[in-house]
Amino acid sequence: MADTYVPMISSGVAGPLGVLHLPRLWLKVSLEEQGKLAPGYPGIGRGFDAMTCAALGLEEQAVKDYIKQNKPTYPEFESWVKKNAKSLNRDAVEKHNAAVRGYIHDDETRKSVLGACDIADEASAPKDAVNLNNLDDWYEFHQVVLK
Fold it and tell me: N- to C-terminal Cα distance for the chain?
């Protein structure tokens, strides 16, 4: 069994609260706090992680501290989010989800991910960050676990 893990929950997945990326954020921070997050993956990075915390009005350090101290299941984490989010309402969630779905990686990132996956950078290739990040995760998982 691996010592570290690629976070295989997509940013395009929402839990019962309906917040895209929140399950992945929980997984990444949980793995990081256990020293089990694969190299190259931040527990809370500047992209979707920071966007999600900001959209919900959650302090990043508070998220890390709660997960480190409590080792919550995902439903327990969502309960904590409900109690601590400063902007958990339908409008905030819909705006955040639209931002996640609509986020486009820069050309360099797109070319790097597509190149690693041996996918031609053509009109039909994914350009959005959710799908490119999925491809990147699947590639990394394959390299570390399946190859």
Answer: 14
